[in-house]
Specification:
The chain is α/β, with parallel strands linked by helices. 39% of the residues lie in helices and 13% in strands. Strand 5, helix 7 and strand 6 form a beta-alpha-beta unit.
């Protein structure tokens, strides 16, 4: 811990190395989170797709695999009402793809979507008492934040602008994740929907550091030790990595998805809303090219997903990436195929050497 130029994140989370594995709904796992925590970092588990029962079961598994601090992540979006007509129009619009893939366009599909953090989730988290709780799209209601703090949880959330970072600090966050434009997956934006004005990691991190008093964690396009070291030079005291951990065997990444990550280049990812209704960075494929990247027809988050899910599933079965959702940051080409424990240790050691410490 003492060899790092700034150890506030280690002290805050009681971890040995200032590396956070990003929560990634649907593709992270308890095994991935546990191995990162066992290596001295902060392992994270995305919970937005879990029911309360699933959350309890997954957390029990996680605790059985690591004694280290862990992070449970939730979304804070508000589900819009009266989306049925938009969803039906979206499904009808996508019916041509259903027919092409041999799917009955009139068949019913699961309407399961990402659930926002609520009273029920909060009660469970109070019971489970994870060391860290992180949020995307802002923060939940103030009373829920207060309850988490009283349960002993450290609270962090993503900011994509300095204004969002200040907003989070004013509402009680213990640290800020400064999510640069390069990041894979969903943008954490909540005070703006102007994607054209989103800020890159190199510009966002130092300005956020100057704007807030709490620790800043850099995220977005950080895949190797060079990016982590650069984060410290920019004033961050930790780094969050997502795409880097998708190459680990513990990640629940399909063969097609992994091949996409291994083959993608710096200019092959785009922000798209066609999978969920919110902008998220992923690898270009047929679906994104033909329907996006940004579609005005896509229902608001998270209601674009149900009609797309059958296409994703069938595309996988046919061995085609045409409709496969492949979230990725812009630096996937720097990924290393190593077990999560080994990767975390290597990233930490390589970063310390770059920083002049061993």
């Amino acid at each position: 811990m003492k060899n790092w130029p700034d150890n506030r994140i280690q002290k805050l989370f009681n971890i040995d190395v200032p590396l956070i594995q990003a929560p990634m709904a649907g593709v992270d796992s308890v095994e991935l989170a546990a191995e990162v925590s066992n290596a001295g970092g902060l392992g994270s588990l995305a919970c937005t797709l879990f029911s309360v029962t699933q959350l309890k079961d997954e957390f029990k598994k996680l605790r059985s695999l690591t004694a280290g601090p862990v992070n449970l992540n939730f979304f804070c979006h508000e589900n819009p009402e009266n989306t049925e007509t938009l969803q039906e129009k979206w499904k009808k619009h996508l019916s041509k793809y259903y027919i092409q893939l041999g799917i009955d366009p009139n068949a019913s599909y699961s309407a399961t979507t990402r659930a926002p953090f609520n009273e029920e989730y909060c009660s469970v988290v109070e019971e489970l008492k994870p060391e860290v709780v992180s949020f995307h799209f802002g923060l939940p209601a103030a009373d829920l934040v207060k309850r988490l703090r009283q349960a002993g949880c450290k609270i962090i959330s993503s900011a994509t602008t300095v204004a969002e970072a200040r907003w989070l600090e004013a509402r009680g966050c213990d640290a800020i994740i400064a999510q640069g434009f390069e990041a894979g997956g969903h943008r954490g934006s909540f005070l703006t929907d102007d994607m054209a004005a989103q800020v890159g990691t190199m510009a966002l991190v130092p300005q956020t550091v100057d704007a807030v008093k709490i620790p800043v964690i850099a995220a977005g396009g950080i895949t190797d030790a060079r990016g982590i070291a650069a984060s410290f030079f920019l004033g961050a005291c930790g780094a969050q990595l997502g795409t880097a951990y998708l190459f680990c065997p513990e990640a629940k990444v399909s063969k097609l998805y992994l091949q996409g990550l291994q083959q993608t280049t710096d200019d092959q990812t785009v922000l798209t809303n066609v999978y969920s209704g919110k902008p998220a960075r992923g690898i270009r494929n047929r679906f994104i090219e033909q329907e996006g990247p940004i579609s005005e027809m896509a229902p608001p988050f998270p209601f674009a997903s149900p009609a797309v899910n059958p296409l994703r599933k069938k595309s996988e079965e046919l061995g085609l990436t045409d409709f496969v959702q492949m979230w990725s940051g812009q630096s996937a080409a720097l990924g290393q195929s190593l077990p999560a424990y080994e990767l975390t240790k290597k990233l930490a050691q390589d970063t310390l050497e770059l920083l002049g410490n061993k």
